[in-house]
Amino acid sequence: MAKSTAPRECSIADALELVGERWSLLAVREILHGVHRFDQIVRNTGTSRDILTTRLRKLESFGIVWRKQYSERPPRYEYHLSPAGMELGDVLVTLMRWGDRHLNAGDPPVRWRHTCGEVLEPVVVCEHCGDTVRNNVHSPTGRGVLAADDAGLRE
Fold first, then answer.
1. pTM of the predicted structure, to 2 decimals
2. What is the mean pLDDT of residues 138-155?
């Protein structure tokens, strides 16, 4: 008899349950770009009004976005990111870099600039030692160690 196992518990899976769907992340992208009004978010993401309404309500219920009313008749709202929503910006620029390198190599559709004036090249680093995460990641189980040299990831 086959032994059934439960899926691995993981914060990645939990996060994907909330934001791992195209329209949620694109709504966050638009708010990061300073687009706060529903109609503009619909236009810039290409989603339907119904889908965006559902996604924004879910993001609001989890404290990722918050609404501010700007019109009483009819009632209309602007959407803003909470601190947790702002942290998703780090995820999005890292995802964008991956897409630039592996899907749009040589011709990325958007270039973000850092406040220093240079084109943004995000890198994930260990807060404690400053080493890049790509260079040395160990599984919490002690198995599945990913070292950049072993995986052919060093450039």
1. 0.81
2. 52
* Residue predicted with more confidence, 37 or 131: 37
Distance CA 134, CA 19 (A): 23
Long-range Cβ pairs for the range 41-45 (8 Å, 24+): 41/79
* Residue environment code for 54-79, b if the CB has 16+ CB neighbours within 10 A, otherwise e: ebbebbbeeebbeeeeeeeeeeebbb
CA-angle at 25, arms to 20 and 26, nearest 5°: 140
* Residue 121, token pair as written in the block: 């090249």
| Residue 141: domain span | 123-155
Query: Rounded to an integer, what distance in angstroms lies between the CA atom of residue 77 and that of residue 59?
Result: 15
Task: Kindly report the number of other CB atoms within 10 A of residue 23's CB atom.
Answer: 19
Helix (H, G, I), strand (E, B) or coil at 106: coil
Peptide bond into 74 cis (omega under 30): yes
Environment class of 110 (CB within 10 Å of its CB; exposed 0-12, middle 13-18, buried 19+)? exposed
Q: Are residues 71 and 134 both part of a single domain?
A: no
Clarify whether residues 104 and 150 are in a common domain.
Answer: no
The gap from C-alpha 146 to its chain's centroid, in whole angstroms, comes to 23
